[in-house]
Specification:
This protein is α+β, with helices and mostly antiparallel strands. The protein folds into 2 domains: about 35 residues, no CATH class; about 130 residues, Nucleoside Triphosphate Pyrophosphohydrolase, CATH 3.90.79.10. It contains 3 helices and 13 strands, in the order βββββββαββββββαα. Strands 1-2-3-10 form a 4-stranded mixed beta sheet, with no helix packed on it. A 4-stranded mixed beta sheet has the order 7-4-11-9. A 3-stranded antiparallel beta sheet has the order 6-5-13. The termini are far apart.
């Protein structure tokens, strides 16, 4: 196998968060065809860990899937913003906790639907967060709680944590435990 040849693309729909293109592609040895390509704004997310080995999780409803689950703070990286800056901003807006930039370390990076979607997820680990305010984005979560890291694998298995960025970050943290 080799790289596909891209002959061009035409936009079908565009917004600041998502765009849909039809891309004229040609896999080596196969006929050209139009392939749908979804482009999503990059996402920054944070797994927050405290001194008691607990993670800060948000209980929220997702209308797109009609489901409730626990998630980590996350959001779109705005134009001109670094993923790190977006991570710090999202934590403060969604939870009211502040993280100093030096407390933020890369934990995971993934592209969740590489075959038809250009989406880039940057996940960070943060320790030493401190509560400085109430959440600004009050629509983001019904509850915000520190939950034991030892319970996270069971919560993922029970589909209580299903968001890809949360599962990726939390599994990476569990895999790196001593």
């Amino acid at each position: 196998m080799s790289e596909w040849t891209v002959h061009g693309a035409r936009p079908v729909y565009q917004s600041p968060w998502v765009s849909l293109d039809l891309v004229d592609v040609e896999p080596q040895g196969h006929a050209r065809y139009e392939h749908h390509l979804i482009k999503l704004a990059p996402v920054a997310a944070v797994v927050m860990l405290d001194d008691a080995d607990r993670v800060l999780l948000m209980w929220r409803h997702r209308f797109a899937t009609g489901s409730w689950s626990w998630e980590i703070p996350s959001g779109i990286v705005e134009d001109g913003e670094t993923p790190e800056a977006a991570a710090l901003r999202e934590v403060l807006e969604e939870t009211g906790y502040e993280i100093e930039p030096e407390q933020l370390t890369p934990l995971a990076y993934n592209e969740p639907i590489g075959g038809m979607c250009d989406a880039r997820h940057h996940v960070y680990l943060a320790r030493g967060a401190r509560k400085v305010a109430d959440p600004v984005d009050t629509h983001e979560a019904d509850r915000i709680e520190w939950l034991a890291l030892d319970e996270v694998q069971g919560m993922i298995d029970a589909r209580q944590i299903v968001a890809g960025v949360a599962v990726t970050g939390l599994l990476q943290l569990l895999a790196r435990r001593p």
